[in-house]
Amino acid sequence: MGMTRIESKQVTIGRTPDELHTFLQDMNNFQQLLPKDRISDWKSDGRSCSFKVQGAATIGLELAGGEAPGLVRMKATDRSPFPFTLDVHLQAADGGTRAWQVFEADLNPFIKMMVETPLRNLFDHIADKMVALHG
Questions:
Q1: How far is it, in rounded angstroms, from Cα 53 to Cα 42?
Q2: Nearest to 17 by CA among 84, 66, 74
Q3: What is the CATH number of the domain that holds 99?
Q4: How many CB atoms lie under 10 A from the CB of residue 66?
Q5: Which of 20, 26, 41, 99 sits between 20 and 30 A of 88, alpha carbons compared?
Q6: What does the alpha-carbon distance between residue 38 and residue 29 come to, in Å, rounded to a whole number?
Q7: Cβ–Cβ < 8 Å for 30, 46
Q8: pLDDT tier at 48 (50, 70, 90 boundaries)?
Q9: Is the dihedral of CA 125, 82, 77, 85 positive or negative?
Q10: What residues make up the domain containing 24?
Q11: What is the DSSP letter of 80?
Q12: Where does residue 37 fall: left (phi above 0), alpha (psi -120 to 50 degrees), or beta otherwise?
C-alpha cells in the first residue's frame, strides 16, 4: 500500500485567506461547497460533518487544526471507511486568495481505483464552489 495523494485544481477567490479560513472553521458551511446532486445524508455539528458521496462512500470529516490562515486541516472520522487527511491551502494572491485541496490516504489498490475519480471530481467541484460563493 502506498500513500494516495489527490490534489484539486487551484482557484483564485476574491476574499482574504482570513475570511475563507473563518468560513471553513464552521463545518456547517461545508455543505454549501458540495455538489447537491451527488451528496446525500448530510449531517453536521459545526466541528465535524458526514455525507454520502454517490459512487464512493460515506465520508466523515472533522476539523483537525492546521495553521491560520493559510491551512485548514481536516481528517477522517470513524464514519469514513479509511483514514485520510484533507488539507485546504489558502495563499494570499493579488488581493485575493489562491486555494486548493490536498487529500492523502493510505488506500489499497482496489479502493483507490474505485474512489480516486469520484473524489477528484468532488474536490474540483469544491474549488469551483468556493469561487462561486465568494467571488
A1: 10
A2: 66
A3: 3.30.530.20
A4: 19
A5: 41
A6: 17
A7: no
A8: very high
A9: negative
A10: 2-134
A11: S
A12: alpha
User: What does pTM read for this prediction?
Assistant: 0.94
54 pLDDT band, cuts 50/70/90, is: confident
Locate 18 and state its grid cell.
Answer: 482570513
Count how many domains the chain has. Answer: 1
E strands present in the chain: 2-7, 11-13, 39-44, 48-53, 58-67, 71-76, 84-93, 96-107
Q: What share of the chain is helix, strand, coil (3-state, %, to 5)?
A: 35, 45, 25
Helix-helix angle 109-134:17-24, to 10 degrees: 120
Mean pLDDT of 27-41: 95
Within 10 angstroms of residue 1's Cβ, the number of other Cβ atoms is 10
Short-list 70, 37, 72, 67, CA closest to 51: 37
pLDDT tens by residue, 55-106: 778 999 999 999 999 999 999 999 898 999 999 999 999 889 999 999 999 9
